[in-house]
Specification:
This protein is about 40% helix and about 10% strand. By secondary structure, the protein is mostly helical. The protein has four domains: about 100 residues, no CATH class; about 70 residues, 2-Layer Sandwich (Dna Ligase, domain 1); about 80 residues, no CATH class; about 140 residues, no CATH class. The strands form five sheets. The protein has a two-stranded antiparallel sheet. α10 packs across α14. The longest helix is centred in the N-terminal third of the chain and has 33 residues.
Length: about 475
């Protein structure tokens, strides 16, 4: 009791330890530490009652509180500390206990108090629930958006509206489909998505109708309109030319020049002399017979050389496809000789079914040392055309005059097609030495091994041509 500053206790104080809270009585949580601090400051015997002289304390002075600056109990039972307002507040490091701040006892006398204002709840702790909700929503939204875009791309892909603007040239290669062509259309800005173009083709009345060539389209076209434009021949901008079987070089060059107004015949003739023409080695540098007959499409801005290279490349593909070199050896011929024979068959024959027989006649006459006596070679040597050569024409000194020269002519006389080349490699079996196309309109051709019979067939031809009797 003597250690309590002032030596007085509140009137209602009862020294019961660990007693429950008493109603109506409130005191600050850290009063025990404050009491302990002042208890240590006032050692026993240091506080003397005589310090307060009689009369120093007067009734009503300080309103019932002790005068001076030391703490003590007020008459109302309230602890009074005049220096408390100059000292910092005390709080625990850990959250407040059940008795703290509510007037009850604080049994944790060893609690760690430190100066500072009461702690506030951190912003991160307040935001943590919202961050968790956001993460969950994102985790749900990303797969959902991905699935949505997949659905849209498959069934409702991006597409332009209308016929578009500008001009774009698109090449459709042989074997192209809507799927293989769509990326090129997309990269050139014709369509908005590949899927839209593929769907347009699938819903078209002709989903597999793409033809090779160069087509003029527009930018930003509706996919269905772009596909329809590729099916329309009116949009074809490539130059197209057909080289029939049996045409001579002198006929092929003008045909190529007529197909592309930007390339002259003189440019084609000059290109024939180029070492990059692409002729096979056995052609001996001559293009006759090696510009393969077919239908060609060449793009704008092509050169004469590039166009001719398309034709020589087509011949090489044909020769490789039938194994020309190996097949020629089986019939005891060189590849160049096969092409010469094929050109003769092509020039003399009218019906494909007669080609192998004509080849057999040629081989039979060569085998017996007979001159071929083919009017087509005479006409070629003279640079003219006809079915029957006149007596004057037969007297020409051209090396292609097979009435005067034995053996094969020095080179092909036209560009043979596949059927003629196959006939030269696979002649029919027979003893024929002569043949005559007795009807030029129907190309009916008769074969015989008799000279007398041949002369009769020849007279039939003359009658058909209106030339009357034999002149040779």
């Amino acid at each position: 009791m003597s250690n309590i500053p002032g030596g007085q206790l509140p009137p209602e104080y009862e020294p019961v330890h660990h007693e429950p809270k008493r109603p109506g009585y409130r005191r600050p949580g850290p009063w025990r530490n404050a009491a302990r601090r002042y208890q240590e400051s006032y050692q026993e015997g240091q506080y003397q009652e005589s310090q307060y002289q009689e009369g120093q304390y007067q009734e009503g002075q300080q309103q019932g509180r002790y005068a001076g600056d030391r703490p003590g109990w007020a008459e109302e039972g309230e602890w009074f500390d005049p220096g408390a307002q100059d000292r910092p507040q005390w709080r625990r490091d850990e959250p407040a206990g059940p008795d703290e701040g509510d007037g009850g006892y604080d049994d944790d006398e060893d609690g760690d108090y430190r100066a500072g204002p009461p702690r506030k709840r951190g912003k991160l702790r307040r935001l943590a629930p919202w961050v968790a909700v956001a993460i969950i929503l994102i985790a749900i939204a990303i797969p959902g958006l991905y699935a949505y875009h997949l659905y849209q791309d498959k069934y409702h892909p991006a597409d332009y509206a209308g016929v578009g603007t500008g001009s774009v040239t698109i090449e459709v290669q042989s074997g192209d489909t809507a799927s293989s062509l769509a990326p090129d259309l997309l990269s050139k800005g014709v369509i908005a998505s590949t899927r839209a173009f593929i769907l347009a083709a699938e819903h078209s009345s002709d989903p597999t109708g793409l033809e090779p060539g160069f087509f003029r389209l527009r930018e930003h076209m509706q996919a269905s309109l772009a596909y329809a434009a590729l099916l329309n021949p009116a949009n074809l901008v490539a130059y197209k030319v057909t080289i029939p079987e049996g045409l001579r070089l002198s006929q092929i060059i003008p045909a190529l020049a007529a197909a592309d107004p930007h390339i002259s015949q003189a440019q084609f003739e000059q290109a024939l002399k180029s070492p990059q023409l692409g002729l096979p080695s056995y052609a001996a540098g001559k293009a006759e017979g090696y510009l393969y007959p077919d239908t060609y499409q060449f793009p704008p801005n092509s050169t004469a050389l590039s166009v001719l290279q398309m034709l020589t490349s087509a011949f090489s593909q044909e020769a490789d496809g039938i194994g020309l070199t190996q097949a020629a050896a089986k019939v005891h011929l060189k590849p160049a000789q096969v092409i010469i024979v094929a050109s003769l068959v092509q020039a003399e024959g009218g019906r494909l079914q007669d080609f192998p027989k004509i080849a057999r006649v040629i081989y039979n006459r060569l085998a017996q040392g007979m001159k071929l006596e083919l009017d087509s070679t005479v006409m070629y040597g003279l640079g003219t055309y006809g079915i029957l050569a006149s007596d004057a024409q037969l007297q020409s000194d051209s090396p292609y005059n097979t009435y005067k020269h034995s053996g094969l002519p020095p080179g092909p006389i036209d560009s043979p097609g596949n059927a003629a080349i196959e006939a030269a490699l696979n002649p029919a079996s027979g003893d024929w030495l002569y043949f005559v196309t007795v009807d030029p309109k129907t190309h009916e051709t008769l074969f015989t091994d008799s000279l007398t019979q041949f002369e009769q067939y020849e007279q039939e031809l003359r009658n058909a041509l209106g030339q009357g009797g034999l002149s040779r």
